[in-house]
Amino acid sequence: MIIDPPSFQKGSFLLTKDYQRVLRRLPDLLSPQGTVLACMNDPAYGEDFLIDGVTREAPGLRFVERLKNPPEFPDIDAQSGLKALVFRQG
Questions:
Q1: Residue 68: which residues within 8 A CB-CB, separation 6 or more?
Q2: Which residues pair with 40 in a beta bridge?
Q3: C-alpha neighbours within 13 Å on the C-beta side of residue 82
Q4: Which pLDDT tens digits describe the chain residue by residue (90 residues)?
Q5: Which of 7, 45, 60, 87 could make an SS bond with 49 (beta carbons 3.0 to 4.6 A apart)?
Q6: Torsions phi, psi for 84 (to 5 deg)
Q7: How far apart (Å, rounded) are the C-alpha atoms in residues 79 and 81?
């Protein structure tokens, strides 16, 4: 499963409020050995935002790895660029 909501979509999605609701639904949506690719591209939040959110809202998932960004999209600071994190159930 891939989750890649917008960081901010006026009137529809607010990262700091709504991503947690998405994460809470993961255990019900995944198969017993399910894998999640959780993405976030907000420069104000680092990968810990996702890792902590999954730990709190979907404790059955474990962090596996952060995927490297392609060289075509270099980041000045790795924590401010695209974060693509893999989690697995079980």
A1: none
A2: 83
A3: 15
A4: 999 887 666 677 788 888 889 999 998 999 999 999 999 988 888 999 999 999 999 999 999 999 998 888 777 777 777 899 999 997
A5: 45
A6: -120, 105
A7: 6
What is the length of the chain? 90
SS3 assignment, position 27? helix
CA angle centred on 44, ends 86 and 82, rounded to 5°: 35
Whole-model pTM: value is 0.85
Cα–chain center distance at 9: 17
Single-letter code of the amino acid located at 23: L
The residue among 18, 23, 17 whose CA lies nearest residue 3 is 23
Quick one: tokens of 43?
Answer: 């420069």
